[in-house]
Amino acid sequence: MKINTNTLKVLSIAFLSAMMMVSCGNKQAKQAEELETETKEQAFEEVTNYPIPTSFEVIQMINKAGASFIIGICNPVDNVGKYITEKDMAINLGIYGADLAYSTTYQMKQETLNYLKVSKDLVEKLNISAGFTPELAKKVEENLENKDSLILTITNSFYETYRYLVENEKESLSLLVVAGSWIEGVYITTQIAYTSRDNTEFIKILANQKAPLMKLMELMEPRKDVPEVKELMDKLAPVQEVYNQIEGENITNEQFEKLMEVITSVRESLV
C-alpha cells in the first residue's frame, strides 16, 4: 500500500507535539541541526494548519512558570514487562517516547538512558526494524551533554519508527503509538500546569492540543473496525468532549480540572 507524504507527516503529529511541549531550543545549535528541526516543525504546521509553540518558545514558557522536573510523573520503566499484547506495547511505546522527550529536555541523563532502553525493548518486541538501532544508542550516549543534538536524534528515531509502521501496512499500530505519545504529552503538561504558580502559558499549550486530537480522531475513524483502535477511540471520547467546549486558547478553571481528570483517567488505564 502506497502512503502519501501528508499521511506520513500526520502520523508523526503526537510525538512531535510531545517533543515540542517539553523540549527547548538553543540559538547556538549547529546549522544543520537547526535546519532539520525547522523542517520537522514546518511539517507539523503544514498538516495541522495552526501555529504551534517552537522549542524555544516552550522553554521560555517553562522558565516563566518556574517549572522543574517532576520526579515520578513519567511511566515507570519497570512497567515495560507488563505489556504483552501488540496494543499495549504500541501505546506504551508512544507513552515512553514522550517520557523520553521529557527526561531529555531536563537533561536527566540516567532517566534518558532508561527510557531509551525500554523504548528499544518495545520496538524489538513489535518487530520494528527501524528507529532504535545500536547506532542510535551509541549516538545518544555520545550526545548526553548536548541537549539539542540529543532531542534531534531521538525525534529522528521515532520518525523512522512511524515511517516503518506506515510503509509496512501497520497503520493501526502506528496510530496507537501516536495516540500514546499525545496522551502522555498532554498528561505531563497538565501536571506541570497544575503545579505552576503561573500556568497561563501552559494553559495555552493545552488549548493548542485540540487540533492534533481532532486530527488523530479523524485518522482513527476509518479504522474503528479494528477492536484496538475502537477501544482507544472510546477512551479518548471524554477528552474530546472537553476539547469540544474549548475555544481558542482560553480554558476555564472548570475545563482545566475536567481535562486533567479525564486525561489522567485515560493514561492510568493504559500504563
UniProtKB/TrEMBL annotation:
Organism: Tenuifilum thalassicum
Domain of life: Bacteria
Name of the featured protein: Uncharacterized protein
Keyword list, A-Z: Signal
Signal peptide start-end: 1-29
